[in-house]
């Protein structure tokens, strides 16, 4: 069996935001939220994106979907360059690429019923011909995510957090997308509900052949749901590998520190594990360090690290690392 076809191909993606300098009306600094990120996702695959808060994970997802206009770089969807498309040309791709947001309370319109929240996109994209078809389709989508028919006429505030996220999933599924960006979809939920929502997403992926970009800081959940994982630090990808390869054979010192902070359920193994504590704070993306972005906190840093940015290099089969000293 050959390799699966690439659905999403991100090449040298950059997303900079202009920030006005204090006291100077016409002076701006550039916040480098995403700085030269490249990866691809195969059809039916879940690519996990992990890193500390503020590292640029969410910005990557939003830029892929053109919620932000990329500063530089290219995103190919099914071989087509969507970054160069205007709004009118890109409109049909809204059906193909959807997003599940982090906080279901703020991503669902409180003034709309569930039928309107899920059904209005169906009408806009002509997936259904009339309101009767819309209502039938909404009830079908609610059943797919484990909700009841009578939920269709309620408002978001009448639901629990887990139910609201199911509504968000149903809305994303309505246009029959191939690719979904999952932006920390379980972080706002109770731990007891998180597994239920993830199981629904896995079942839907198997049933519908969906492709996911799963963004999270939950290392255990990333390991559970992902096929491959990318580790981000200060707007850069520092390591990419198949999930078990990454968790069992991590190369980059940032990945090693990140994984050492992950809680271990086995108390004996937890006592044996050694926590790698990083010194200093994460540098500001407004003023990142020269060369390697991690060098100011890295125990292996040399003068070379300050002079040159390391590139992602394949050190083992399908295992890529951006580090001068780990190669």
Description of the molecule:
- This protein is an alpha/beta fold.
- It has a single domain, classed as P-loop containing nucleotide triphosphate hydrolases (Rossmann fold, 3-Layer(aba) Sandwich), CATH 3.40.50.
- The chain contains 13 helices and twelve strands.
- It has helices at 57-64, 87-90, 93-96, 104-107, 114-124, 131-144, 161-173, 191-208, 219-225, 243-248, 253-260, 267-272, 303-307, and strands at residues 6-20, 28-42, 46-50, 72-77, 80-81, 97-100, 179-183, 211-216, 228-233, 236-242, 313-316, 319-321.
- It has an eight-stranded mixed sheet, sandwiched between helices. The chain has a four-stranded antiparallel sheet with strand order 2-1-4-5.
- A hairpin with a 2-residue loop joins β4 and β5.
- α5 packs across α6.
- The two termini are 31 Å apart.
- The mean pLDDT is 90.
Order of helices and strands: EEEHEEHHEHHHHEHEHEEHHHHEE
Radius of gyration: 21 Å
Instruction: Provide the CATH topology.
Output: Rossmann fold
Label the structural class. Answer: alpha/beta
Sheet having the most strands: 8 strands, mixed
Q: Can you count the beta strands?
A: 12
| The first-level CATH class name | Alpha Beta
Main-sheet strand order equals 6-7-8-3-9-10-12-11
Estimated share of beta-strand residues: 15-25%
Q: Percent range for helical residues? A: 25-40%
CATH superfamily: P-loop containing nucleotide triphosphate hydrolases
Architecture per CATH nomenclature, i.e. the level-2 architecture: 3-Layer(aba) Sandwich
Shape: globular
Total domain modules: 1
Cα end-to-end separation: 31 Å
* Mean pLDDT across all amino acids: 90
Uncertain runs with pLDDT below 50, 5 residues or more?
Answer: none
Number of helices: 13
